[in-house]
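[Archive record]
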Amino acid sequence: MPIPMDIQHASKEFEAFLADARDRSGLATRNQTYTMTQGVLQAFRRRLSVADAIRFAGVLPPLIRAIFVAEWNPEEPQASFGDRESMIRDVQALRRDHNFSPATCIDDVAAALRAHIDERAFDRVLAALPAGAAEFWRV
């Protein structure tokens, strides 16, 4: 079997995603954008069960999927989908001294991600996740 195309082009597609997220957020660097993306993914993951997180990871592009599952402690207590402001603070808490995520960070990553995935498959998975999951990624 040949290597799947999404794996063959993972780096190129990830760079395109980062550029899109950077431009949407107004951040200056790839590193700042990576931290914002990682923070958004971790904030979302904290609000899912392990089974739901695995289901969600399955619709992500390979490198974004790797960021989503990296440094995961499945024993961490599950947070709830609360108000947007508290979830944004959760994103901004990652590497606080080196995190420049704007107040629009979740929206910026959501819009960039949706531009680089199969949105129908993404929305299908979100519909099967707990209340609040689809709203988190709504653009």
